[in-house]
């Protein structure tokens, strides 16, 4: 479903992504681990087209999308949520989801109808709001809801475009243990045919959700395998200083 | 996102009633001022759509108005096309020019967008100023008004022309509301709030900006075609950046991003201009002080101030009244 071949990116003399090759099957849930500065977010930016690789290619559903801009990749089914909330702050939760759903249904640029009033858009909004537990907050402005709700909305907006592949950059970043548990359920309840690539520091969540785990260090893939293999990996313990097992 | 509320409807009704009353009762000078307000209102509506709802602060809307005026004058005068068709052609032409400007400037933001539109505006001004075909700095005179005598309307009569402009302004206002409530308008609002996210969701941002800029340019062009017919004379001054600047002042004075506010601003600006210019030649200074006061007050213009002060209170009263009219409300009263 999503594949990268020898993807590389440098900023000046610093190489932040080194020959990264990944292959995600349809419905696969892969978690990317790695210390700060390992190049995880840069990899996401390369995948969605916010950065152009120096070398290598990105393939979505068998098509080479390396040369496509961000919007075209999104229209082909590649969606992302951000580590730092990137929402429409002045609008309501419902309008946030509606804008995304309208893009999926093709009503977003029509001049003769209100995209947010379209039944198919409203249907997606209701469905996604249910999926990410936003029903009680639908009519609240984003600036009025709690940080945790905004994190849920961050994922909801990405989901409302009905993606084939969803990239989630630290979905639980900054949320408390209670909310983090909620995210476990949220991720586990997503449709099984949706391919997920998740950057996550919360090890419990990573091992709970992941089918496979990839570890990046200094922009390079240093581990690619099953969660149980990752738990026993000596290399990973060195990278993380044994932090999650000790914990 | 654009939304009407009780206060906005009330102000709209008041403005429409006031304009209609003035159009039906005023003498020649009053009708001239009214027509000036109506044409300016059309221009500032065009500007508010892009600046207030798309974050595209344009300094070329004066030029787009001028393009509409010149296109009408050329099509109806030199080309001899029927004035109604000439007007449609002028609107389409200015819309096309605006679309191209919007498409080119769409990737710039903030001060760079302003300067890019200013450059386009000044290019248009210089072209018209130097062009012998367009009359150079002498402009074009003897522009005829639409002939609607077949339906019993003589637009050479100031009252009829003012009413005609009022009717067109009503149509333009309605069209502006439709644009802002359409999928395109909603997406524009998304772009203003978070362009990066709209792009990441799959929107071709430049195209949305260009399309809305084009529609806005059509409205500015219509204002220009009316301005040409109003004064029956046009000169390059119509395309000057000062006209764009004045329109921006009016939008800010009235209330950016409200649609109703710029209409209030147009009334306030033209009335102030005529009243103050009768007292002093330094009337710009007073308007400047008022503008500074409006900006420093942090209220969103005159209408924004009114809305912040009374808008919520009126909405609450309307909601209370609606609740009381419902059976549940009656039951709770009992």
Description:
Chain A is of the alpha/beta class. Chain A folds into 2 domains: 1-77 and 164-247, P-loop containing nucleotide triphosphate hydrolases (Rossmann fold, 3-Layer(aba) Sandwich); 87-162, no CATH class. Chain A is built from 10 helices and 10 strands. In chain A, the strands form 2 sheets. In chain A, strands 6-7-8-3-9-10 form a 6-stranded mixed β-sheet, with helices on both faces. Chain A is globular, with a radius of gyration of 18 Å. The model of chain A has no long low-confidence stretch (mean pLDDT 87). Chain B is mainly alpha-helical and 334 residues long. Chain B has one domain (6-239). Chain B is 77% helix and 1% strand. Chain B has 14 helices and 2 strands; from the N terminus they run αααααβααααβααααα. Chain B has helices at 6-25, 28-54, 61-78, 83-105, 110-130, 158-181, 183-193, 195-200, 205-231, 241-254, 260-279, 283-296, 301-325, 327-333; strands at residues 140-141, 233-234. A two-stranded antiparallel ribbon of chain B has the order 1-2. Chain B is globular. The two termini of chain B are 39 Å apart. The chains are: A alpha/beta (247), B mainly alpha (334). At the A-B interface, helix 2 and helix 3 of A face helix 6, helix 7, helix 8 and helix 9 of B.
Order of helices and strands of chain A: EEEHEEHEHHHEHEHEEHHH
Sheet having the most strands of chain A: 6 strands, mixed
Radius of gyration of chain A: 18 Å
Q: Structural class given helices, strands, pairing of chain B?
A: mainly alpha
Give the % helix of chain A: 25-40%
CATH architecture field of the largest domain in chain A:
3-Layer(aba) Sandwich
Weakly predicted, low-confidence segments of chain A: none
Mean pLDDT of chain B: 91
CATH C-level class of the largest domain in chain A is: Alpha Beta
- What is the 3D form of chain A? globular
Give the number of DSSP strands of chain A: 10
- The tally of helices of chain B reads 14
Main sheet specs of chain B:
2 strands, antiparallel
Instruction: Return the CATH topology of the largest domain in chain A.
Output: Rossmann fold
Largest beta sheet: strand ordering of chain B: 1-2
Give the CA-CA distance, first to last residue of chain A. 35 Å
Quickly count the helices of chain A. Answer: 10
GO molecular function, one term (chain A): ATP binding
Pfam families (chain A): ABC_tran
Keywords (chain A): ATP-binding, Nucleotide-binding, Transport
Domain ABC transporter (chain A): 2-243
